[in-house]
Structures are given as C-alpha cells and as structure tokens.
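Interim report to the steering committee. The following record documents the input for Phosphohexomutase (315 residues).
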Amino acid sequence: MLYPLFFEPVYKEIIWGGRKLEKYFNRNIPDGNIAESWEVSCHKSGMSIIRNGELKGTTLKEVIDSYGEIILGKKYNSFPLLVKLIDANDKLSVQVHPDDDYAKKFENQFGKTEMWYVIDAKENAQLVYGLKSEISKEKFIEAINLNKVEECLNYVNVSKGDVIFIPSGTVHAIMDGLLLAEIQQSSDVTYRLYDWNRVDKEGKRRELHIDKALDVINFNFEGNVLKPEFKSFDGYEIADAIKCPYFEVSIIKVNLSYKSNCNGSFKVYTAVEGEGEVLYNGISYKINCGDSFLMPAELDEYEILGKITLLETKA
C-alpha cells in the first residue's frame, strides 16, 4: 500500500539566488546564493529522494520503475513534471524555452512550458513577460547587435498570489525581490538571450544561446498576469489557475478540510502558505509551508486539514 510521498529538496546555487528559502520556509540550506529548490523531480539534473515512510531514501525514479502505473496512472511511463521553489534575490537572465519538437531534435529532452505562482514579492515587483508588441524578429536581432535588448522587453507588475503562464517560446525573466513556485515540464533546457551585462566572481559572462533562442521565440505572444478567482465551499476555497496540455493547476485555500482522491491519476501538492496535515488510510502526514508531496495514482480518498494554501497539480 503506497502513501503520500514527501521529498528531500535538491538545492541549486546560481548567481542570482539568495537566502530567502532559508528564512521564509525555516529550512537549513547550503551556503551560497541558493536560487532554486527542486521539490519534486525525476530529472537527471536533480533527482528527488523520498524522505518519509517505508520508501525513505529511495529515488523517485526507482519508485516509478518498481511501481509504474500504481504511481503515475495509465497516461505516463515517466514522471512528466518538475516542481521548484525559486528565490530571485537578483534578476534572472532574459531567456526562452523551446517546445517539445525543437528540444527533442537538438537537446534530446522535452521542451519547457511552465507557470509561476507568486508566493512573496517586494513592493512594485516586476517580471519580463514577452516582448513589446512592435518588436519583430528583425528589430530584435538589431537590438541584440546594438546591446539594446532591454528596450525591447515587456515588463509587468506582480504581487503575492498572482499566476503567470509561460508557454514555450515566451521571452521571460524573473526580476529581483520575488519568491515563486514553478511548475513545469520535466526539462532543463534554457536559452539565454541577455544577462544584464553582469559577470561572475572571475569576471566572466555567462554563456548566451542567441541562435537557438531566435529559432524558438514566439514574436506574437501576448499574455496577462492572472488574478485567480476563488469559489467557496464548506471547509475550503478553490480557484482554477492554469489548464494546458502539460498540466492543470488549481489553488486551494483550506480553512478547515478538503477531501479528494486520485481516481487513477497522480497529483502533486505544493504548500505555499500556512501548515496542515494530509490524512490517508488512518495516518497523518504533517505539511509544512514549502513542502511538496505526491499522491500516487492508486490512492483513494484522502483529507487535507489545517489552515493552508496549496497548489494542486494534475498532469
């Protein structure tokens, strides 16, 4: 009998990271600029290890190899998602991700469509979300050659609780002062277009991938920052956030109780505020703010209790 699976975080030190994952989630994290915590991953660049129950110490891949359909359901043979927490103490590079066809051809990986949920934000926080409407491929190439990329970028204001959908081909960058949850395809392919002319400790600039980025940019993209609208039920509120071919995400604010079941498809929950517990088969599993856990596809009814806000992801 399987159960709710919790995982050890996989931390990534990157030049733009900080220490907010430590402070906000009361965690012990490695020294340095910790930018990302991979919370649920079956990717070779950061494999999740189960931290609870009989399967403690086992990798997610090993569990899927052993249990297959019991974990994932009938739709998938491999885990299709990657869930992260992101601390942008400084701004990220301006970047774009390819779609599946391009990524499989040139990178032997899946493409990357993703979404962000704003957990915390400084006052007047911003994101780069696409290019200005008048920017064509030819104008953008000219701007790159003249080092005027910043003049082409579309900036949007964001605040706590906002949702941003980033389909493949979208030029984007997280700016400083943001703490995000990211849900994406299981991919680690990023094409950097511009890195704000910054250098590392050795005076070197990070690699850019201009040619590939220009191949995959959607110059006709138009998107809006989403403000989820909640419906109230007995014990909880729920808002539909994102529905796309790769994942469906709802935001659930539990103020007393939320009951659900997997019905043959796995679910991933990410706690973005508060704390609580998940009850399954007579056993209680503590949920701390920042925790992500996977409910295997075979599980029947479970209940989440407490005062806690979660992202519920289905694939």
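The mean pLDDT is 97. The committee is asked to note this result when reviewing the revised timeline.
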